[in-house]
Amino acid sequence: MSIEDIIDVVWGEDPPATVRSQVQICVSAARRALAGVGMGDTLRTHPFGYSLMLEPGQRDIDDFARLVSEARAASDAGRCEVAVRSYRGALDLWRGPALSGLDSEVLHRKAVALNEERLTVLEECIDMELQRGRERKLLPELVNHVSENPLREKLRGQLMLALHRAGRRTDALRVYREGRDRMVNDLGLEPSDELRRLESGILNDAPELAPAYTQSAGVSVPRQLPPLTDHFVGRDDLTRSLSALLDRPPATGRTGTRAVNVYGRGGVGKTSLALHIAYRLAHERFVDGQLYYDLHGSGPAAVPPARVLDHFLRTLGVPPSDIPKGLDERASMFRSHVAGRDMLLVLDDAADEAQIQPLLPGGRDCAVLVTSRTSQTGIPALHNVRLDVLTPPEALELIGRSVGEKRLRAEPSAVAEVVRHLDGLPLALSIAGARLAAAPHRPLSSMAHRFRDEGRRLDALTRGGQAVRTTIASTYDGLRPELQGLLSRLSLLGVETVPGWMAAVVTGRGTEEAHDLLDEAAAAQMLAPVEAESNDTPRYRIPGLIRVFLREAAGRIAVAERQEVVRRIVGAWLALLDRAHSRLHGGDFARVRGNSPRREPPEDVVRDVLTDPLRWMDAERPGLLAAVDAAKEYGLDEACWDLAVALVTLFEVRPHHDDWRRSHETALKVVLESGNVRGEAATRCSLGSLYLSQRHTERALPFLEKSLALFEELCEVEGMALATRNIALCRHTQGMLDTALLEYGRAADLFRDAGDPVGQAHVWCHVAQIHVAKDDPGLAEQQLTAALDTCRKAGSSRVASQVLVRLGELRLGAGRPEVALAHFREALSIVRTQADEVGEGHVQRNLGTAHLMQGDLAEAARCFHRALSIADVTGSPVEAARTRGGLGEVYLAQREFQRAKALLDQAVPVLQQHRDAAGARFRQLLERLP
Q1: Hey, which residues does 223 pair with through a beta bridge?
Q2: The pairing of beta strand 367-372 with beta strand 344-350
Q3: 836: which DSSP letter?
Q4: Nearest to 333 by CA among 313, 362, 315, 356
Q5: Contact (Cβ atoms closer than 8 angstroms) between residue 437 and residue 229
Q6: CA-based nearest residue to 750, from 791, 718, 712, 715
Q7: Averaged pLDDT for residues 362-378
């Protein structure tokens, strides 16, 4: 094309002065755009101008012409469905009017011709679809086209015919009148003879206006969908997305069936969702019918696909004598009968790929909606979508459908508890709602009370022919015996989630084999994989109602075998806790360890523990606490107290005081019943430590003194050392410094005799505090230096961080904040590495004090605020009061007296109540405030 021709086409008779430069700029831009799609060499420059060298099929207009030609050839051959697919493929290439947005007379004339061709093809396509009786599907499209082209008689006539066939004769005649008025007013013409004849035929209900296929079919259109349930809530996004997937026109040139498999656990609402979608699409999209079959795949007697095909073929009008015997022949005949039909197949409760595959149609016109308990990844045509339980608001709505809003509002906490116990499972919620609706005189709290008892929960979830227990059993019974045994044994833990490696402990298999078993259980919807942790350790959640069922199944296992499983599980936990404690303390120091057997855990889990012991313990805390209860349930007294006391490594640095108390009260009860004296001594010592950490010294001392007496009877030196040290701490907290110093001395000697240097170092750290209080900083420094050296040699980073804090405090007392900061920063590095929240709170408060002494008020405030946020989380009133006092000092230095007074007013009473030395100093500051 010459440059002159380009100028004429684009600018016409009035080109700008810079027209040639603009042509070059536009050509360069076009070449870049073509290069972006791999066609950079198609636009070429020649001495006379430019050429665009395209291969056949690279222009959409060529594709359009080819598809229209194929459609017309198929129409001439009587192949209506092939013609419609080609017509629709051609029309799908359009993205609006041709060449829109271009201001060129030449291109405008070309666009008019192209748009006319498009409308002609559209009319031909609609004619073909009207012959197939798809008037309902076409109505929305025809309304839009007539609105856009009001003077197009062919389209108006097609809309009139579609409305008439849909039983809307009045609307069809109205469309005619509106068109006639428009033609007379705009053109001064009456409608064509063809349009007037159509109006007359509609007025007279002419039989020739009926679709051709209804005149000879002889078989009614199948409408086999079961009735919809009123109790369908939520799922809005999923309904829209799946409806769009099933409803969308097939892509040009593709032959795959549109098929979706909705899978999930029993009772989750797969059938309800499938029918909800099916009804939504049936009458407008799948006008040739809907086929439905319950395949009973979750039960022991799944329906053979040959029987399903026999049913479908009979439904489609095939005489029984003509239906072949073989499965492959029946499948082939079925595909032939549904080819070219807009039909929806709903295959409910499918078992597996072998049952589904022969039932799939081969063309693009049919859509298939499968429900199944498992993902059917072996069939490429199936788009698998997992259906989860309802969200809490959706579950409340479902219950409300049965019991009414009035009862929901009257007992909101009771209905929330019911929902919580039922996992958001629609089947369970529907049964509970039905039972409550049948007993309007009973309060919702009565049902909530019943569900609290796990032993009665599944009994209450039965009504008529529905039972949650039966639904779960249908899946469980289909599992391999080995997998059934694993799941029932895992349920003995009584926890919601289990780490994958625990299956290896229970089964005695390798880790990978155990993970494969758990993945198999997850595929069967008995477990739900939890999002992988940072170390990629797989975890699995046991849904609550399934967990209750599995506990029932575990009850059929011999007691001795269940006891052995719990012993193995506790042994694995203990082995890991041993490593966590040693990692933090440099060895098996400062603890009394039980004699319960350890079970070597997988190496990758050990690596995870050693990488971050406290994070690992915190993450596994629910399972560890449940194991304490399981050990109690099965009479494993040694394992029970051993595990409870081992957890103190975590409890000392996390605000889990309730867990500490409950686990130890459980253990204490067991050891008292069994007469386990050593276990009683260790548990009492640990409980005393708990109360001491809460500064309840009067409550702690009886436990500690009894513990010491028991350890002395047993000649348990490490235990005597721990109990004596804790008694010394009580006296220290009470301000009885001389008594505390004597007790500390005894404890240090006992730790030495037990070969526990870290225990000694910990005692020296506290002794140093007394020397500071007695105004002997030199002796205090000797004690702390020796303690730090001991900790570093032993590798006890946890106690080392405590010693560093005391050294920093000593430097602050000596007026050397710069040296103190170095100690505090080293301690901060340790506690952050260990994720020791309590330790970081102490360090941040001391950092704030050091910065305050240096006059760096902004940094001091930042540190105090951080310490205060930690103290609020860890629940330490004394630490929070000390921090508020320090922050009050910062505000005092900034002359913000009101803010300073508010903080000091909060801090002083708490510190005085606990006889903390800082209370007197903050009181003096408060009294000096203006």
Answers
A1: 290
A2: parallel
A3: -
A4: 313
A5: no
A6: 718
A7: 89
Tokens of 927: 């009294």
Q: What mean pLDDT comes out for the span 327-340?
A: 90
Q: Whose structure tokens read 């240096």?
A: 854
Specify whether the CB–CB gap between 288 and 341 falls below 8 A.
yes
Which strand ranges, in their side-by-side order, compose the sheet holding 382-386?
290-294, 344-350, 367-372, 258-263, 382-386
pLDDT in tens, 256-310: 578 999 999 999 999 999 999 999 888 777 878 899 999 999 888 889 999 999 9
Output phi, psi for 345, to 5 deg.
-105, 125
Percent of the chain whose pLDDT exceeds 90: 53
What is d(CA 362, CA 259) in angstroms, rounded to the nearest whole number? Answer: 11
Put the strands of the sheet holding 497-499 in their side by side order: 497-499, 539-541, 528-530
Token reading at 743: 């007790």
Cα distances (angstroms) measured from residue 118 to each of 80, 86, 91, 115, 630: 19, 13, 7, 5, 75
- String of DSSP letters for 535-582: T---EEE--HHHHHHHHHHHTTS-HHHHHHHHHHHHHHHHHHHHHHHH
Q: What is the pLDDT of residues 403-441, one digit of tens each?
A: 888 888 888 899 899 989 998 999 999 999 888 888 888
Q: How many helices (H) and strands (E) does the chain have?
A: 46, 12
Q: What's phi and psi for 594, nearest 5 deg?
A: -75, 175
The torsion angle over the Cα atoms of residues 783, 784, 787 and 789, rounded to 10 degrees, is: -110
Q: Where are the beta strands (DSSP E) in 748-799?
A: none
CA atoms within 13 A on the CB side of 515: 12
Grouping H, G, I as helix, E, B as strand and the rest as coil, residue 347 is strand
Instruction: Write out pLDDT tens, residues 812-828.
Output: 999 999 999 999 999 99
Structure confidence by residue, pLDDT tens digits, 67-97? 888 888 888 777 777 788 888 889 988 888 8
Measure CA 379 to chain center: 26
d(CA 345, CA 25): 56
H or E element at residue 708 = helix 697-714
Per-residue pLDDT band for 254 (boundaries 50, 70, 90) equals very low
DSSP collapsed to 3 states, 853-867? HHCCHHHHHHHHHHH
pLDDT at 252 exceeding the cut of 70: no
Number of CB atoms found within 10 A of residue 559's CB: 10
d(CA 523, CA 527) in angstroms, rounded, equals 8
pLDDT single digits (tens) 653-684: 887 889 999 999 999 999 999 999 999 999 99
Whether 649 contacts 617, CB under 8 Å: yes
Answer for the pair 621, 659: CB distance below 8 angstroms, yes or no: yes
**In 3D, which of 674, 495, 500, 486 has the Cα closest to residue 565?**
486
For residue 504, which of 461, 537, 458 has the smallest C-alpha distance?
537
- Of 496, 590, 569, give the one whose Cα is nearest residue 539: 496
Q: What is the pLDDT of residue 253?
A: 42
What is the rounded CA–CA span in Å between residue 597 and residue 594? 9
| Residues facing residue 258 across a β-bridge | 367
Between CA 701 and CA 692 the distance in angstroms is 8
Name residue, tokens 């076009």.
30
Angle, in degrees to the nearest 10, between helices 153-165 and 193-203: 10
Lookup: tokens for 384: 């698998």
Residue recorded with tokens 């009470």: 734
| Location of structure tokens 């008892």 | 453
Tokens of 614: 């406290």
Alpha carbon distance 715, 720 (integer Å): 8
What separation in angstroms does the CA of 840 have from each of 558, 712, 774, 791?
Answer: 48, 36, 27, 19
Rounded Cα gap, residues 556 and 814, in angstroms: 70
3-state secondary structure of 616: helix
Within 622-765, strands assigned E span: none
Bridge partners (DSSP) of residue 293 are 347
Query: What average pLDDT does the chain have?
Result: 88
